[in-house]
Amino acid sequence: MEKFQVHILGCGSALPTTRHFSSSQVINLREKLFMIDCGEGAQLQLRKSKLKFSRLNHIFISHLHGDHVFGLIGLISTFGLLGRTAELHIFSPAGLEKLFSPLMDFFCYKLPFKVIFHEFSSAESVIIFEDRTVEVHTIPLSHRLPCCGFLFKEKKLPNHLKRDMADFYRVSMSHYNLIKNGADFTTDEGEVIPNERLTIPSYDPRSYAYCSDTRYVPKIIPLIDGVNLLFHEATFDDNDIARAKETYHSTATQAAMIARDAHVGRLIIGHFSARYEDETPLLNEAQQTFQDTLLAYENMCIDV
User: Fold this and answer.
1) pLDDT tier at 264, thresholds 50, 70, 90
2) Is 67 a residue of the active site?
3) Quick check: 49 and 26 in contact, CB under 8 A?
4) The domain that contains 77 carries what CATH number?
5) What pLDDT score does 190 carry?
6) Hey, is 269 helix, strand or coil?
7) What residue numbers bound the domain in which 119 lies?
8) Could you report the per-residue pLDDT of 176-231, keeping only the tens digit for each?
9) Do residues 109 and 131 lie in contact, with contact meaning Cβ atoms separated by under 8 Å?
C-alpha cells in the first residue's frame, strides 16, 4: 500500500507553550508533501520530523489567524536560502497575498523561486487542488473570520496486472495500461477475456479531513462522512463549553460527536488551549462518545 501519513508539527492553540507548537501538519501522500497551516516554529518541527523540504510544494492555510500563518514567512525565507527553484503554491482564504507581499519584498528579496497564491471562498465546499494522486476539497467551518478545513481524497490506483494470466493469454505490453484501468482483452482468436481474470483490484482510496478552527458545526458531517481519519480541534473541555462558544471553538465531546455522526474511522483531537497542562481529561471526554480517539502530539506520525 502506498504511503499516506499525517505528521503533526504543532497541535497547540494561539499561545505557544513549552509543550506545544502552534498549528501545522504535513501530509505525506505517495512521497508528495502537503502542508496544512504554518504556525510559528513549523520549519523547526519539519526538520525534527525528517521530512524533505524539497518535496513540499503546496501549503494550505485554513484562516488568517497568526497561530496558523506566523511560520510561513520564515519557511519561505529558508526555502530561498536553500536555493529552491520549484514553485511554491499557497492556498488560503482571501487576503493572505496582500498581507505577505510587503513582507516578502522586504525579507525575501529576489527569491529564486515563484510563490503563487491561490485564494478560495469559505462559503462552500470546492476542489482547490487536484493531480494524479489526490483531490483537495475545502470544508467550510465556523470561526471568527473566514475559515475552511481540508479534505484530502486519494485517487484510486490502477488494478494490479496478473502477469501469469497476461502471459497465458499472450497479452502484449501495449495493452497493459488499458487492462490495469479496467478494459477487457480480446485474443487473436476473438475470445474476450474479462478484466477480473487478468487483474487484482487495488486497495480502496483513503481520505483525511482536517477541521480547525471551528465551533461545533454539524453541517460539515456530510462532507466528511466515512473518512478514514479526522483531525478535529478540541480546544476546550466540557467545563469550558461557554468559552468555546464565545471564541468559536469546540470541546472534545463536540469533536467526538462530529466523528461519531460522520462514521469516521479514527479521530485525532488537537489545537489544545494553553490552560491545560494535561490533555488526558479531554481524551477521556472524547472517548466517552467516540472510542477510537487519539490525542495529537508534536512529531506524531499516523498512517491513514
Assistant:
1) very high
2) yes
3) yes
4) 3.60.15.10
5) 79
6) strand
7) 4-157+203-303
8) 888 888 888 888 887 888 898 888 988 899 999 999 999 999 999 999 999 999 99
9) no
147 and 241, same domain (yes or no): yes
- Lowest pLDDT segment from 30-44, 161-175, 234-248: 161-175
Q: Are residues 10 and 91 in the same domain?
A: yes
Residue from 37, 67, 213, 237 carrying the catalytic annotation: 67
Spatial separation of the C-alpha atoms in residues 225 and 156, rounded to whole Å: 18
How many domains in the chain?
2
Q: Which three cell numbers mark 282?
A: 479531554
Please count the residues of the chain. Answer: 304
pTM of the model: 0.92
Say if residue 130 is in the same domain as residue 276: yes
Phi, psi of 274 (to 5 degrees): -70, -10
In this structure, the dihedral spanned by the alpha carbons of residues 295, 236, 35 and 158, taken in order and rounded to 10 degrees, is: 60
Buried b (16+ CB within 10 A) or exposed e, 51-60: beeeebebbb
> What angle, 0 to 180 degrees and rounded to 10, lies between the N-to-C axes of helices 280-289 and 252-261?
30
Contact yes or no for 233/214 (Cβ under 8 A): yes
Cα dihedral sign, 271-275-279-282: negative
User: Alpha-carbon distance 86 to 65, whole Å?
Assistant: 27
Cell numbers standing for residue 94: 482571501
